[in-house]
Amino acid sequence: MKIERVDDKTVKCFISNEEMEEYEIDYKDFILRSDKAKQVVHDIIVQAAEQVGYRPPKFAFDMQIMMLPDQGLLLTFSESDFTNLPNMQQIIDYLKEMKQTLQRTKEQLGIEDPAGEMAKDTPQEERHRPEEAIFAFENIGQVMNYAALLPSNLRVQSALYKMDDRFYLYIHRGNASYERYSRACIQALEFGTLYSGDGMLFLALKEHGECLIGRRAIQRLRG
């Protein structure tokens, strides 16, 4: 385990594949914040304090996870910065804005109606439910972290494209239940942003983007 001090508030730790095997842990544990991951993080902080004089923040810290193919994981710990939210009212306003954004996204995906509940299909006409969406990610690591979070038996169809230095994941409901497909879309918002809620831009993405994985992208990224 190699620990490097970046500055007063930041420290990096490289964990090799061999060390992860010894800990009996993988990157999914860090994403899901498992008990094993929490123990490893505690060990890292203790070693960082001993080796480089790192002092963990009193309140909270951010942890970034980067996969290094065929090498291991790079974890970066940094103190949470609240300087942009100097008072409680700003924090409340910020949370309200995030909640409204999430609600608008859900409605665009057809997941919830304005009342916050799934509308029931009527005998005369079923409610239109979009069954495809495209999500944009800043880097491939975000896509892989998202894929790792999804259940292995999720039967959606997916493809991965790259365009203008961003990564785009196309998801179609496929044989998955609408509930599981909807949950997968909501989870995607934890790592990326909604690019299209109805798949209408998929043809443009296929024409102008670079296809990295044409089918079963989520399953292949999960490994």
What is the gist of this entry?
This protein has helices spanning 17-23, 27-32, 35-52, 88-109, 140-149, 178-188, 202-208, 217-222, and strands at 2-7, 10-16, 61-68, 72-79, 132-137, 157-163, 166-172, 193-196, 210-213.
Topology:
Blueprint: E1 2-7, E2 10-16, H1 17-23, H2 27-32, H3 35-52, E3 61-68, E4 72-79, H4 88-109, E5 132-137, H5 140-149, E6 157-163, E7 166-172, H6 178-188, E8 193-196, H7 202-208, E9 210-213, H8 217-222
Antiparallel strand pairs: 1-2, 2-4, 3-4, 5-7, 5-8, 6-7, 6-9
Offer a few descriptive terms.
223 residues, alpha+beta, Alpha-Beta Plaits, 5-stranded antiparallel sheet, 4-stranded antiparallel sheet, 39% helix, 26% strand, elongated
Q: Termini, distance in Å?
A: 24 Å
Number of strands: 9
CATH architecture assignment name of the largest domain: 2-Layer Sandwich
Beta-strand percent range: 25-35%
Largest sheet: 5 strands, antiparallel
CATH fold-level assignment of the largest domain: Alpha-Beta Plaits
Elements, N to C (H/E): EEHHHEEHEHEEHEHEH
The top-level CATH class of the largest domain is Alpha Beta
Percentage of helical residues?
25-40%
